[in-house]
Structures are given as structure tokens and as C-alpha cells.
Design goal:
single chain; mainly alpha; 84% helix; 0% strand
Amino acid sequence: MEGFVALYIFMLAAFTGYEVISKVPTILHTPLMSGSNFVHGIVLVGAMVALGHATTVAEQVIGFIAVLLGAGNAVGGYVVTERMLEMFKSSREEG
């Protein structure tokens, strides 16, 4: 029964997240992306803490993968945000 509750919460969160993000105007995507990068950093710290408390080999492998994916997500988010901010610079600032 707990699995169904978790699945229901996941589906509700996915639907709510989609509805919220789809209503964001284009001009707010860059600030929203910067805010989500902050959340990805917190997720990365959580994955590192979980990896530090891992006792079995399976937990260590899953924790290591979580840290790798979290780091890639956070770094990739900052790269994309930087590229998006470059689009807003005027041609006078470039050279």
C-alpha cells in the first residue's frame, strides 16, 4: 500500500510541476533556471551525505552514481544559464 501512496505523490508532483513550469513567461526562464541550480546544489550535497553514510557496496555504487549525476546536473545548469545570459548582452559590450 505504501508503494501506491508514493506513486500517487510522485504523479501529483509531476503534474503540478508541469503545470507550474508551463505557465512561466519566457522572460522569467533565466532567473528560474538560476534558482533551480541552487536546488541542484542542495541535491548534490544530500547525495554526498548519503554516500558518506553508505555501508554496503550497492549503497556506495548508487551513491557514487547519484553524486556524478547531481554534479553533472548542477554544472550543466550553470553552463546553460551562462549561455542564456550571453544572449541578453548588447553588441557594444562584446568588443
